[in-house]
Every structure is written in C-alpha cells, then in structure tokens.
Specification:
Length: 175
C-alpha cells in the first residue's frame, strides 16, 4: 500500500479525527471523552507548536486513512524522562477502527510512517512511548525494528520507551 501525507488542518479535519480518537478502540489515545471543540483545540495547539506536528496519512485516492504525529523529544513528551540524542524524533500513530479490517493494513501504516520520518536525513532514531498495556502496538513496533529500553512513568501513563535506528528499521523491513 502506498500512502501520502498532508498536514492535519485542525478545523477542517477535526470532525473526522474526533470520530477516530473517541472510538473505544482508540482508548490508548486518551481522548475518549473529548468533545469536537477539545479535538480542535488540541490540534490547534499542535499546529502552533514548532516541536510537535500532526499529519494525516492518505490512501492513493486521497482518502484520510490514519493520523500521525511526530515531535522533538528534547522539547515534548519525554523531557526529563530520557536523554534524547541528536537526530531523535518521537512518533505516535492512530489507525481508526473499522468494521472491515484489512489484514496487514496497520503494519503498512507504521511502515509508511517510519519511511516518511526517515526520509529526512537528519533523523537518525525514532522514539516511541506507548502505554505498557498496549501489547498490539508493542508487537507492531518490534516488527519494524523498535527495541524496548525500559518502562517510564509519564504523567498520563506508564509507558514502554522504545527506539528504532534507521539501520534497525531497514533490517526489519527487508528481512
């Protein structure tokens, strides 16, 4: 599957994203009780933040298929919880719930997200910090080359801090 990316528009895309982030299957996104205005506000804050970015992943026909965020871990999410290296980028992604799941779709999404981030030659390593209970995403992360380092306590969750270098990713996706 081939995807393209575009910046999320906090106002135009809020209704779509609201449905995604408030769905019961998106519990680990921690926006279950968000109102439309809360989603607009959250993504307006991201749009105004030079260290945090939100993108929509689009299918070949331009249909929004998933949400991706990337951030600078020296300034967001992991400040004081790990020592970021030069070239580190933090990442989150959300594939919306569907009544007609496609086998391998989520793995295609995370692979596309990783390729997209590594297109920037300054990116050397991708950092993730999913909830320790999110075993499905741990398996996906491992499949694309992430190595778990340790559990950390973030204000909103106990997280599994994991890293993936460009070399680990390339080895995982060409294996």
């Amino acid at each position: 599957m081939t995807f393209t990316f575009r910046p999320l528009d906090p106002l135009k895309d809020a209704e779509l994203v609201h449905g995604w982030v408030t769905h019961p299957k998106a519990a680990f996104w921690m926006m279950q009780d968000a109102k439309l205005e809360d989603v607009e506000r959250a993504y307006m804050e991201i749009a105004a933040d030079e260290h945090h970015h939100a993108l929509l992943g689009l299918t070949e026909d331009g249909t929004p298929a998933f949400l991706m965020e990337w951030y600078d871990p020296a300034h967001r999410e992991l400040v004081g919880l790990c020592e970021p290296r030069s070239g580190d980028v933090g990442m989150h992604f959300l594939v919306p719930a569907t009544d007609t799941p496609v086998h391998g779709f989520t793995r295609s999404v995370i692979t596309a997200v990783m390729f997209h981030l590594f297109e920037d030659p300054s990116v050397r390593r991708i950092v993730v910090e999913p909830d320790v209970r999110n075993t499905a995403v741990h398996a996906l992360n491992e499949a694309v080359g992430f190595v778990a380092e340790r559990e950390i306590d973030k204000p909103e969750k106990r997280a599994l801090l994991s890293f993936c270098t460009r070399e680990q990713f390339e080895k995982a996706v060409t294996a």
